[in-house]
Each structure stands twice: as C-alpha cells, then as structure tokens.
Design brief:
Low-confidence stretches: none
Strand order of the largest sheet: 1-3-2
CATH architecture of the domain at 32-108: Orthogonal Bundle
CATH topology of the domain at 32-108: Arc Repressor Mutant, subunit A
Mean pLDDT: 85
CATH superfamily of the domain at 32-108: Winged helix-like DNA-binding domain superfamily/Winged helix DNA-binding domain
Protein name: ArsR family transcriptional regulator
Radius of gyration: 14 Å
Largest sheet: 3 strands, antiparallel
Number of helices: 5
Strand content: 5-15%
Helix content: 40-55%
GO molecular function: DNA-binding transcription factor activity
Shape: globular
Order of helices and strands: HHEHEEHH
C-alpha cells in the first residue's frame, strides 16, 4: 500500500472502521463490476488514488458514479474530491483489520471468461 501524501482533501463520508459490516461489504462486492474495480485497485494501483477514467470502464458516468458510491458507502473504498473529479483507493488497513483475508480473496479472484461486466 502506498503512503498517504500530505495535503490531501478530506475523504468523502464513509463508515468508521468499527461500523464496517461483513454483509454490507459482501453485498457491495457481489456485483462483478464493483469486484473488478476493487481488484484492479489492489493489483494495478501505481498511485495513491485513481480517477474513474483510470479504470477504463465503458459505462455511462451515472452508472459508474453509482458503483463507486456503493463501494464507498460499504466502507470498501475511500474517495476524495479533487475539484470536479473524485479519486478512489481501497481501505486496505481498515478492511484487513475487520475481515482478515477478504482482500486476498478479492485479489486472487479470476473473472470468468464469459463475464462481461467490465
């Protein structure tokens, strides 16, 4: 996990670590597109956080906004507002402390060839 740079904007509202609930996290991850987003952040992240465009998803902006909000509200990702864009990162330390091994499973997940969610 990359260190947090100084001078970041405050995160958008998210659940506190002690309020993270397994059923909420699993529900958010049950969508194949959201699972792909989290997996890509875990495996391919080269910066601290990423804009929606970095993911290369061919979806309407309103659809992506919905998916990224669902991940943030479940406590899986943290989002920060930079002017007109929001950037995301996985809450690795928080999720590992609450649900050890869960992110390892997400990282090891291999999408089925017939899965066209992304």
């Amino acid at each position: 996990m990359l260190p947090e740079p100084s001078g970041l904007p405050d995160p958008l509202p998210e659940p506190a670590v002690e309020d993270l609930r397994l059923e909420t996290v699993l529900s958010a991850l049950s969508d194949p597109l959201r699972l792909r987003i989290v997996r890509k952040l875990l495996l391919d992240s080269e910066e601290f956080d990423h804009t929606c465009g970095w993911f290369g998803l061919d979806r309407p902006k309103s659809s992506l906004t919905h998916h990224f909000r669902a991940l943030r509200e479940a406590g899986i990702t943290r989002q920060r507002q930079y002017g007109l864009e929001r950037r995301s990162q996985v809450r690795v330390a928080d999720l590992n402390s609450r649900f050890p091994g869960l992110l390892d499973l997400v990282a090891e997940w291999n999408p089925a060839e017939g899965d066209h969610a992304g």
